[in-house]
Amino acid sequence: MASQSQGIQQLLQAEKRAAEKVAEARKRKNRRLKQAKEEAQAEIEQYRLQREKEFKAKEAAALGSHGSCTTEVEKETQEKMSVIQQNFQKNREVVMSQLLSLVCDQTRDPRELPHKWLVLGGGQCPGSAGSQV
């Protein structure tokens, strides 16, 4: 009986060692899978960055001439806006004084009014029912 008991003990120990080896093998397998996933992610990221860089280079080449056109149009627009602003500043006082003189000056003879409109370039007298002066 003692030999049976010893044989059972050996079997139990062998089973325990086998379970430990299986558990260790599973751990190694999981570590390898995790490492493979990390390496794959790194490779994917590297590939994505490379493709993105290539895309940006092609985009820059394709839009290079368009970008300079946009810059040129913006420059022309700024120049035109500057000219308009200068004209506004230069003529603002004259226009304001003409408007104020038309509104505030009271004439005794209403027949003088069409003459003032012609001088200022209005072209048509207000209240003249569409007639040109």
UniProtKB/TrEMBL annotation:
<dbReference type="GO" id="GO:0016887">
    <property type="term" value="F:ATP hydrolysis activity"/>
</dbReference>
<comment type="similarity">
    <text>Belongs to the V-ATPase G subunit family.</text>
</comment>
<dbReference type="GO" id="GO:0005829">
    <property type="term" value="C:cytosol"/>
</dbReference>
<dbReference type="GO" id="GO:0097401">
    <property type="term" value="P:synaptic vesicle lumen acidification"/>
</dbReference>
<keyword id="KW-0375">Hydrogen ion transport</keyword>
<comment type="function">
    <text>Subunit of the V1 complex of vacuolar(H+)-ATPase (V-ATPase), a multisubunit enzyme composed of a peripheral complex (V1) that hydrolyzes ATP and a membrane integral complex (V0) that translocates protons. V-ATPase is responsible for acidifying and maintaining the pH of intracellular compartments and in some cell types, is targeted to the plasma membrane, where it is responsible for acidifying the extracellular environment.</text>
</comment>
<dbReference type="GO" id="GO:0005886">
    <property type="term" value="C:plasma membrane"/>
</dbReference>
<dbReference type="GO" id="GO:0005765">
    <property type="term" value="C:lysosomal membrane"/>
</dbReference>
<keyword id="KW-0175">Coiled coil</keyword>
<protein>
    <recommendedName>
        <fullName>V-type proton ATPase subunit G</fullName>
    </recommendedName>
</protein>
<dbReference type="GO" id="GO:0036295">
    <property type="term" value="P:cellular response to increased oxygen levels"/>
</dbReference>
<dbReference type="Pfam" id="PF03179">
    <property type="entry name" value="V-ATPase_G"/>
</dbReference>
<comment type="subunit">
    <text>V-ATPase is a heteromultimeric enzyme made up of two complexes: the ATP-hydrolytic V1 complex and the proton translocation V0 complex.</text>
</comment>
<keyword id="KW-0406">Ion transport</keyword>
<dbReference type="GO" id="GO:0006879">
    <property type="term" value="P:intracellular iron ion homeostasis"/>
</dbReference>
<dbReference type="GO" id="GO:0000221">
    <property type="term" value="C:vacuolar proton-transporting V-type ATPase, V1 domain"/>
</dbReference>
<dbReference type="GO" id="GO:0030672">
    <property type="term" value="C:synaptic vesicle membrane"/>
</dbReference>
<dbReference type="InterPro" id="IPR005124">
    <property type="entry name" value="V-ATPase_G"/>
</dbReference>
<feature type="coiled-coil region">
    <location>
        <begin position="8"/>
        <end position="57"/>
    </location>
</feature>
<keyword id="KW-0813">Transport</keyword>
<dbReference type="GO" id="GO:0051117">
    <property type="term" value="F:ATPase binding"/>
</dbReference>
<dbReference type="GO" id="GO:0046961">
    <property type="term" value="F:proton-transporting ATPase activity, rotational mechanism"/>
</dbReference>
